[in-house]
Design goal:
heterodimer; A: mainly beta; glutathione-dependent formaldehyde- activating enzyme (gfa); disordered N terminus; B: mainly beta; Metal Binding Protein, Guanine Nucleotide Exchange Factor, Chain A; 3-stranded antiparallel sheet; 10 strands; binds zinc ion
Chain lengths: 149, 137
């Protein structure tokens, strides 16, 4: 469930299956992107679904079982070492980021993702052949960043 | 060898878990339940095969978590890849489709547990949807 603060602003919360990782987000998360890259497919064992936010807006309420894995030389993925839930993706070097460091959070780990819309599919040129995206009307981008039909 | 007859293999992102399948499944069935959503970070997508047809080349980092009173979920403790669902007392194991080496020659067959679907996405591929289990009893 999501709580409402006195100001009426929704507080977004989430976590893993076992509760070893719990978080709150102090901003309205950005729209969701579905990632069809092969790394997401391996780690999430299907399509990745992420919302983005400033790193400073993510508050870890419990991180006892949070573990990080450097999935490439430029990014790391956070998951729960006890229940295996996939939670975060973060670029390693964000020293040049103008608006400060960012983090992406899996949509499925949110307690209630109601109110978040889907913005786009990304890395669709790397999609697994075993499924179809279907006609959902959502923008599709290739790994180059270009919109594809 | 055609894609449709190729032996399937798979594993996690870091290679700590690797497996080979002696049998090919019918196809992929998705799961829209809340537990899969948390475990995988989005929907689940699984093949089902007899447990004794799965041979592990590597399982050093394989961890199991009892996710409910009736099942365990398997994942890699090093890279966090979410890999298996194993129901208590069942002779079969469910393996996450994304962990399979491409190409698989598989297609998605149907959607299960859509009663538990989250509202941030649509199912738009036209495949049959089941409110609960889609497996014939
Ligand atoms: Zn956990
Ligand atoms: Zn990805
Ligand atoms: Zn691994």
């Amino acid at each position: 469930m999501t709580d409402a603060t006195a100001g009426g602003e929704q507080v977004w919360t989430g976590g893993c299956l076992c509760g070893g990782v719990r978080y709150a987000i102090d901003t309205h998360p950005e729209p969701i992107s579905f990632c069809h890259c092969s790394q997401c497919r391996r780690q999430h064992s299907h399509v990745g679904a992420y919302t983005g936010l400033p790193r400073a807006a993510l508050r870890l309420l419990n991180d006892a079982t949070l573990t990080w894995y450097a999935s490439s030389d430029r990014a790391r993925r956070g998951f729960c070492a006890r229940c295996g839930a996939g939670l975060f993706w973060e670029a390693l070097d964000q020293s040049g980021a103008e608006d400060g460091p960012r983090i992406t959070v899996t949509a499925g780990s949110l307690d209630d993702a109601s109110g978040l819309r889907v913005e786009r599919h990304i890395f669709v040129d790397h999609k697994g052949a075993y499924y179809d995206i279907g006609d959902d009307g959502v923008e599709r981008r290739a790994s180059t960043g270009e919109t594809v039909e | 060898m055609s894609e449709q007859s190729r032996a399937l293999s798979g594993g996690c992102l870091c290679g700590g878990v690797r497996f080979l399948l002696a049998e090919r499944p019918d196809g992929v069935v998705t799961c829209h339940c809340g537990q899969c959503r948390r475990f995988h970070g989005h929907i689940g997508a699984y093949i089902t095969v007899p447990r004794d047809t799965v041979a592990f080349d590597a399982d050093a980092t394989l961890s199991w978590y009892r996710s409910s009173g009736i099942a365990e979920r398997g994942f890699c403790g090093r890279c966090g890849s979410s890999l298996f669902w194993k129901g208590d007392g069942k002779s079969e194991i469910e393996i996450a489709a994304g962990s399979l080496d491409q190409p698989t020659g598989l297609t998605t067959l149907r959607h299960g547990y859509v009663a538990g679907k989250a509202d941030y996405y649509e199912i738009a591929d036209g495949l049959e949807q089941f409110p609960g289990s889609s497996e014939p009893e």
